[in-house]
Every structure is written in C-alpha cells, then in structure tokens.
C-alpha cells in the first residue's frame, strides 16, 4: 500500500466539548484547541466494540499462509503475514466491514472512521521494538494491552517473553480476525519449526532487523521467489493462545466493554504505536489509558512528530496530556532522520 492519508473524516469521538470546557476554565485558547478548530468535526455512529474468540479450529487461518519474520538483537523472532501477499488475496478473505475492497480501490492507508490503518506495520512499531530490546524488558507475568494493535507485533513480543495476559485491540474487526489472530497463531508455533521451513525452501527472512539497528528492505515477492508458507498444525489448545484476548471497535466503546470483565483488568504495560495522528481521537485514547493503566504501570507510545494530511502529532498530544494533568510524559527516544519519530512514556503523576 502507498503511504497516503485519506482526509475524509466520518465517525468517531469528538473533542469539542472537552476543549470548550478547558477554554472556559482558562479564559484563553491554547494550541490544542486551535488545532481542533481547524480540524473537520467527526459525525456519525461510532464503531461498537466486540470481543473476538479464536476459532475452535484455527488451522484454516494458516492454510497456505505466507509469512515474514522480523528479528531485532536478542528479541525472539516475530512472524507475521506477508503484507504483499495479504493485499493480493484480500478479496478472498472474509470482510464484513468491506475495508479490504475500499482500501484497494482508494489506495489509502487511512479512511478515518472506516479503516484506521491496521493492515500495515508502521515504522514506529519497529522503533519501539528496538527500544524494548535495548531496555531488556521481559514482561514476565505482566498484563499487557496492545492498543491499536494492527499486526500485533508488540503484543506478540510480550506474549513470547512471558506476559501473563495480552489484550489486543484494533478499530477494525477485519484486521483483528484476518491479521492479528493469524499472526498470534503463527507465533504460537515453535520458532525452530519456522526456521526449518525457511531452510527447506532456501529462503531468508522476509524482513530482518539485526543488532537492533540495521534494517534490510522488504524482499520483493514474485512468482519465482515466494516467501515461505506456514504449515497449519493444531493450535486450539496452545498455552500462549489461552493468555490472549482480542477486541475490535472504537476506543469509546472498547473501554466500557473491557471494564465489564471481572475482575476489572489493569495493565502493567500498554503499547500504542502511530495512534495519535488525529486530534479528534485524543479524548477517547486518553480516557482509555487513564482507566486501564495500573497505578504503577507504563504506557509506551511510538509516534511521528506530525502526520501530514491528518493534523495530529506528538506536540499536540503532549499539550493535550499536560492539560489533563493525569500523566507525566517522558521522551525515551528521538529519531532525527527523515520525518522525525519518537518513543515516549506516560506514567501517572505522583500525588503531592
């Protein structure tokens, strides 16, 4: 897919009421409220959240699956469906939301309120993976939420490194059912089995990051050099899969749905990558983080400085977080090459 934002903004949560309230309290407009004035207001119904149970017979999701692998330093290899092949076979997949045909027709990575970019592994995901590798986080026994998960690589890493439970959430049910769940299933299988498949076919990994810093380009997929295919085996009782929960829907409906769970979940770590591109979504995102983060928990947020054509970015989100006064925000990594990218951490402010 080309890197293209479609600036046709239908449905989700509007921020105007919160912003107006801040203006009444302060008596002046700030940079965040100025931005929301210039942004088209969202209208229409939100996408209702739902939980997705893994299929009782998951083999069919991996039948003839074509995958690639990312490896970063000491991190375990992460396997995921090849993006090019996924696009080529999109129309053959179940898609009640009709996002696969629409993204193909419009050649867009974002149709706000309809499709929110979950079929693509975005650059900032790799930035966050590299940072985790350097920090040496193991996730042993922790509760983890991969918010706006897409392919689910961050949550899968936590799962393979010992997380006690991992919740995956994406806006689109098609993304969760056709991409996230199959990727988790891929990684439930032993890595040596995947490696042996590669050796038999004489193929290298589709995408490799070595020593946490070098990234090879994605290999071209063609008829004479196809990526490896994945054998389907019985995964329905796999212990890793039993630690996973899968959700789709708008954050404003996902939050009350997950809070119905008993006991109410609190997450030690929340991942969210490339999710602050639209300022209209900030209230729902902030509320979700506020209600679901454990008292001593940590939010890892990976983002670009600015998202052209949509209007959001790190500076505006920092301003929004500062206004709310709930979280402190610390810069963990700043990239200087090209369009600037960042990884930041959010923690609850200390009570004084």
Give me some keywords for this one.
352 residues, alpha/beta, 3-stranded antiparallel β-sheet, disordered N terminus
Describe this structure in words.
This protein has helices at residues 16-26, 31-38, 59-62, 83-88, 99-106, 123-135, 153-160, 173-188, 191-201, 251-259, 282-292, 314-324, and strands spanning 5-6, 50-52, 65-70, 78-81, 110-111, 143-147, 165-170, 209-210, 214-215, 229-230, 244-248, 267-273, 293-304, 327-334, 341-348. It is an alpha/beta fold and 352 residues long. The longest helix is centred in the middle third of the chain and has 16 residues, at 173-188. The relative contact order is 0.18. Residues 1-29, 34-43 and 198-223 have low confidence and may be disordered.
Structure summary:
This protein is α/β, with parallel strands linked by helices and 352 residues long.
Strand order of the largest sheet: 2-11-7-6-12-13-15-14
Helix content: 25-40%
Detail the poorly predicted runs: 1-29, 34-43, 198-223
Number of helical regions: 12
Distance between the termini: 49 Å
The secondary-structure element order is EHHEHEEHHEHEHEHHEEEEHEHEHEE
Structural category: alpha/beta
Give the beta-strand count.
15
Q: Report the sheet-strand fraction.
A: 15-25%
Main β-sheet: number of strands, strand sense, barrel status? 8 strands, mixed
Mean pLDDT: 80
Rg of Cα set: 20 Å
Shape: globular
Fold blueprint:
Elements: E1 5-6, H1 16-26, H2 31-38, E2 50-52, H3 59-62, E3 65-70, E4 78-81, H4 83-88, H5 99-106, E5 110-111, H6 123-135, E6 143-147, H7 153-160, E7 165-170, H8 173-188, H9 191-201, E8 209-210, E9 214-215, E10 229-230, E11 244-248, H10 251-259, E12 267-273, H11 282-292, E13 293-304, H12 314-324, E14 327-334, E15 341-348
Parallel strand pairs: 1-5, 6-7, 6-12, 7-11, 12-13
Antiparallel strand pairs: 2-11, 3-4, 3-10, 8-9, 13-15, 14-15
Helix pairs in contact: 1-2, 10-11
């Amino acid at each position: 897919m080309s890197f293209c934002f479609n600036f046709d903004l239908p449905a989700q949560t509007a921020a105007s009421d919160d912003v107006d309230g801040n203006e009444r309290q302060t008596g002046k407009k700030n940079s965040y409220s100025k931005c929301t004035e210039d942004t088209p207001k969202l209208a229409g119904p939100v996408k209702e959240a739902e939980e997705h149970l893994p299929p009782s017979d998951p083999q069919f999701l991996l039948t003839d699956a074509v995958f690639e692998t990312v490896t970063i330093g000491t991190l375990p290899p992460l396997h995921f469906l090849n993006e090019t092949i996924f696009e080529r076979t999109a129309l053959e997949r179940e898609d009640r939301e009709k996002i696969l045909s629409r993204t193909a027709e419009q050649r867009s990575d974002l149709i706000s309120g309809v499709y929110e970019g979950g079929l693509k592994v975005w650059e900032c995901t790799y930035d966050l993976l590299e940072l985790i590798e350097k920090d040496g986080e193991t996730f042993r026994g922790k509760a983890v939420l991969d918010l706006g998960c897409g392919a689910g690589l961050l949550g899968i890493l936590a799962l393979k490194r010992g997380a006690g439970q991992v919740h995956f959430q994406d806006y689109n049910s098609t993304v969760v059912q056709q991409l996230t769940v199959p990727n988790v299933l891929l990684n439930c299988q032993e890595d040596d089995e995947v490696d042996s498949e590669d050796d038999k076919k004489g193929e290298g990994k589709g995408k490799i990051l070595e020593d946490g810093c070098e990234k090879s380009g994605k290999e071209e997929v063609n008829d004479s050099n196809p990526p490896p295919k994945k054998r389907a085996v019985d995964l329905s009782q796999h212990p890793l899969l039993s630690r996973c929960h899968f959700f789709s829907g708008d954050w404003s409906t996902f939050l009350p749905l997950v809070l119905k769970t008993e006991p109410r979940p609190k997450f030690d770590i929340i991942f969210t990558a490339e999710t602050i591109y639209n300022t209209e979504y900030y209230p729902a995102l902030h509320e979700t983080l506020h209600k679901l983060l454990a008292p001593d928990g940590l939010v890892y947020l990976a983002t670009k400085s600015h998202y052209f054509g949509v209007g959001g970015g790190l500076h505006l989100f920092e301003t929004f977080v500062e206004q709310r006064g709930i979280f402190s925000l610390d810069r963990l990594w700043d990239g200087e090459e090209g369009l600037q990218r960042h990884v930041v951490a959010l923690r609850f402010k200390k009570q004084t």
